[in-house]
Amino acid sequence: MASGRALLEHGLQGLCIFDIVPRLETSKGAIQALAQDFPLAKIVTKAVDVRYEKSVKDAVDATVDALGGVDILLCFAEIARTYPAMEMTPEQWHEILDINATGCFLTSKHVAKYVADNSESVAQNVSRG
Ligand SMILES: NC(=O)c1ccc[n+]([C@@H]2O[C@H](COP(=O)([O-])OP(=O)(O)OC[C@H]3O[C@@H](n4cnc5c(N)ncnc54)[C@H](O)[C@@H]3O)[C@@H](O)[C@H]2O)c1
After folding, report:
1. Where are the alpha helices (H) located in 28-99, listed in sequence order?
2. N- to C-terminal Cα separation, the chain
3. Any atom of ligand 1 within 6 Å of the Cβ of 79
4. Domain ranges in the chain?
5. Beta carbons of 70 and 123 less than 8 angstroms apart
6. Where are the alpha helices (DSSP H) in 1-129?
7. Statement: the pTM of the whole predicted model exceeds 0.85
8. What is the CA(11)–ligand 1 centre distance, in A?
């Protein structure tokens, strides 16, 4: 949200926020505030679970339909978990990798495909470290 706001302050005209349904619900107030602060920008949301390729592909397609393209991708979906390594289960390990790593891969893949299919497009990809 803070990164979206910063980009809007620097002239971004369209923003699509991807998140899971419960978080979109709890973020409604913050998203409305963003829309009020930047009335000329088109701000939309899309419910996505970045672990699943179809969910990501549908969201990227919907973003292109709503905003006319994608110029910047911020891969910030993540979960932070602290398990003692010697007690961590494979399921806990895979949950972290599925969201924090695979989610970023899938989102980058589908935005890259959009860019490759649209020769005039260039997208910048910013991912967490
Ligand atoms: N807050 C910090 O101090 C800090 C510092 C360094 C880096 N970062 C990075 O910045 C990014 C955002 O951090 P934040 O503090 O805003 O965290 P945050 O928890 O507020 O944001 C992460 C978002 O990912 C979403 N998410 C979780 N599972 C998902 C899924 N399966 N599909 C789609 N979305 C999912 C969450 O709902 C949440 O909105 C993270 O990548 C984090 O690593 C944050």
Report:
1. 28-37, 53-67, 90-97
2. 18
3. yes
4. 2-127
5. yes
6. 2-9, 21-26, 28-37, 53-67, 90-97, 103-117
7. yes
8. 23
In angstroms, the CA 89 to CA 84 distance is 10
pLDDT band at 123 (very low <50, low <70, confident <90, very high): confident
DSSP state of 51: T
Pick from 57, 48, 51: which is nearest to 99 by CA? Answer: 51
2-127 has CATH 3.40.50.300 classification: no
Q: Is the CB of 101 under 6 A from ligand 1?
A: no
CB of 73 closer than 8 Å to CB of 108: yes
Cα 111-109-11 angle, rounded to 5 deg: 30
Tokens of 46: 């899309």
